Amino acid sequence: MTARSALRRYMLVSFLTWLPPGLMVACMVLLMTERGLGLVEVGLSVTVFSVVTASLELPTGGLADVVGRRAVLACSAVFTVAGLALMSVSTAFWMFLVSGVLKGIARALSSGPATSWYVDTLHGIEGEGADLKPGLARGGAMESVALAVGVLLGGAVPMLVPPEVMTPLAVPPLLGAGAAVVLLVVVMFALPEPAHARRSLGGVLREVPATVVAGIRLAAGGAVLRRLMAAAAASGMLLMTIELLTPGRLAELAGTAERGSAAYAVVAALGYAASATGSVLAPRVARLAGSSARGAMVGAVLCALSVGSLAATAGLDGVPGLVAAGLAYLVMFAGLSVTGLLCLEMQHNAVSAAERTTVTSTSSLSLQAGGVLANSTLGVLAAQTGASAAWWVASGVVLASALLFVAMPRPGVTRSSRVPALPERSCSG
């Protein structure tokens, strides 16, 4: 396998992994409210998803480091199909909760394996000194493109489906389930992985906790990783605040749930397009800023300023409100993408292949923990005082997180950080 071939496969899997969430994001909150759920119940459903994801991040990351990336990604696709199919037919609060559990399992399983597969493959081809930024940037761009395409389709489809045929807002999750089926097929054939030595179930179960513990110790013991985990938590708070409050706000501006779904689709698609642009520009930002850490700090500051502008214009109505939200999304997602891509590079440069997915899952766990915290605090704040107050707090948190990148230690893998109990993955793993 060549580096170009590995990159193409990584980009395809990245796109297909994020297309199903993109298809459902525009209609998720509106579908819940249309079927009788209040804002608190919607928040609880989202919290269940976040808690399940956070609880399984480290075990599933360790599992991917033990049994391989492809098997874990395939399981993720299966759970995505089940979760989105159930979401499309859910009519009661408990059904949405079960759907959230299934989607949370899928999200935890998908956190890290594809990126780890690409990094390990590139290291096997070009050596551990290979420049990760270009490939990771393209993979991140494909994720954003998938979200943009998905959210546009998910927002437009409900406008085209006659209500007498089926609930219009239920169609995008069904399309997402179909996209996940395609992902399952691609993963099974596009990510070749060498056969693992036969091991007993007991042996696997013993290795996964050992890998998890090693990953936690590495993340907690390294100055670089501690800062990156804190930055991920701040990003999680911001994303949860945006995802929870923006759909309802745009539905108010548009007048109906279906129009609100379409408006959110357009605004979110602009944000995801900016995110793709930010991923592509991240290497240049790091070069102009002088280092990846300084580039990440620039992205965090831009993100905080954009959320502050979103809060400041929360009182605008009609077209001005939609335009203000769209512009804020452009800057916010571009800045967030720059920071996220450069943090990902620093993270992968700070660990070895043996614990790569586990540490990636630790980062995702931090992001989910930040989301749970935002949902239980800023969601309540928004219900009592309005969305503007919650957005102001989120802006302050992200601005404070920029300080984490000041005097950032240079990331580097030390031999003592490797996990000796596990074999190194081959270049095609």
Q: What would you say this structure looks like, in words?
A:
The protein has 429 residues and is mainly alpha-helical. It has a single domain, classed as Up-down Bundle (Growth Hormone, Chain: A), CATH 1.20.1250.20. The protein has helices at 3-25, 28-34, 39-67, 69-89, 93-110, 113-126, 133-160, 171-190, 201-221, 223-254, 257-289, 292-312, 318-349, 356-385, 387-401. Helix 10 runs antiparallel to helix 13. Mean pLDDT is 80; it is low at 194-198 and 413-429.
Write the layout of secondary structure elements.
Elements lengths: L2 H23 L2 H7 L4 H29 L1 H21 L3 H18 L2 H14 L6 H28 L10 H20 L10 H21 L1 H32 L2 H33 L2 H21 L5 H32 L6 H30 L1 H15 L28
What keywords describe this structure?
429 residues, mainly alpha, Growth Hormone, Chain: A, 80% helix, 0% strand, globular, disordered C terminus
Please state the CA-atom Rg, rounded to the nearest Å: 21 Å
Count of DSSP H/I helices: 15
Strand coverage percent: under 5%
Could you give me the name of the CATH homologous superfamily? MFS general substrate transporter like domains
Total count of strands:
0
CATH architecture call: Up-down Bundle
* Percent range of helical residues: over 70%
Low-confidence stretches are 194-198, 413-429
- Please outline the major beta sheet: none
Span between termini = 11 Å
Task: Name the overall outline.
Answer: globular
Tally of distinct domains: 1
Q: Write the CATH fold name.
A: Growth Hormone, Chain: A
Q: What is the CATH class name?
A: Mainly Alpha
Tell me briefly what this model is.
The chain has 429 residues and is mainly α.
